[in-house]
């Protein structure tokens, strides 16, 4: 959420952010509501002061045994006016908050301006595209040949986009999750959290999924709970409505969860095999930091995610996302795209984002600095990594001429087998 005082003083910056992020938030409505709210607050404060002064006058008259009938009558009128204005003020505050929730975060100056992914900047590549003495197969052919997946039975059980990992495929999926968790715990110093998969509406609003993305979420109507689209949601809200101490920052968490997304806007996108799922597994990194350190933290988290791909020896590239490709809540995002040689394309396996104080304001997460002043901290998160496209890249990169797969040696302690 953006501070209303900032918006008031920086309308053009906000208009530009809305435009560059391809959003449709109505600033004029916000301004009108804010003006109404401020007038109501002014009237309320004046009446409250009048009420306090009149109370003192009535008390003094009663103490002096003087007639205070006129003042009591006027006090009743003021009290009624206060009640009416208080109700109007409460409604205006609610309306203001509702509109503020529709305003996107403001991109940082380092973010290239562009309408869509075609304007993303490639800032780094690592490794080389693998060469084969045979025509490489795509992951679905490899998985089928090695009996790693059963998409048909997954669709029978739940519908398309809900894969069943079978036999060695299930073991590989479990090995990837375990490897990435331990990698971040032991090498990068994160603390592990195991979090709920169902969260309430307030929690989803805190990280920016609601109200904008409700159509993309799986919702349990009876309890008004949502299946999480990412561990970012419950982990970021771990400190909701709390004040941390500066000496306790940064807080760095890693969490594995299944993730659930309806993918309501995925029509026309490639959904073959594991490329776009309604349920998938992901290891997520989340940090809570002091504002002046968040830019550095973003680079560190990017390096943490890259380290996984480097450990697996996979060729990848890093993109600096343009304004039109940023998420609603992000100030700046790097995408990691891994090369899938059988599919002959790059696939996103991680987004690492700095949200500034946007989520912290929505979730009311603050910290007390060394001088005792309470401020909103900054939140960041990043996939470290999502498994479906990682598995695609591993299967396609390490396939053998006979159709088998030889996984990287680094996975041996976790896999205890060669596929």
Structure description:
With 419 residues, this protein is an alpha+beta fold. It folds into two domains: 4-100, Serine-tRNA synthetase, tRNA binding domain (Helix Hairpins); 117-415, Bira Bifunctional Protein, Domain 2 (BirA Bifunctional Protein, domain 2, 2-Layer Sandwich), CATH 3.30.930. Helix content is 41%, strand content 19%. An eight-stranded mixed beta sheet has the order 1-9-10-11-14-8-7-2. It is elongated. The two termini are 48 Å apart. The mean pLDDT is 95.
Helix content: 40-55%
Mean pLDDT: 95
| Broad structural category | alpha+beta
The CATH superfamily label of the largest domain reads: Bira Bifunctional Protein, Domain 2
> What is the CATH-assigned architecture of the largest domain?
2-Layer Sandwich
In short:
The protein is of the alpha+beta class.
List keywords for this structure.
single chain; 419 residues; alpha+beta; Helix Hairpins; BirA Bifunctional Protein, domain 2; eight-stranded mixed sheet; three-stranded antiparallel sheet; elongated
Topology:
Elements: H1 4-9, H2 11-20, H3 27-63, H4 69-100, E1 121-126, H5 139-145, H6 151-157, H7 168-188, E2 191-192, E3 198-200, H8 201-206, E4 219-220, E5 225-227, H9 232-236, E6 243-245, E7 251-260, E8 279-289, H10 294-311, E9 316-320, E10 332-340, E11 345-354, H11 358-363, E12 366-368, E13 374-376, E14 378-386, H12 387-397, H13 412-415
Parallel strand pairs: 2-7, 6-12
Antiparallel strand pairs: 1-9, 3-5, 4-5, 7-8, 8-14, 9-10, 10-11, 11-14, 12-13
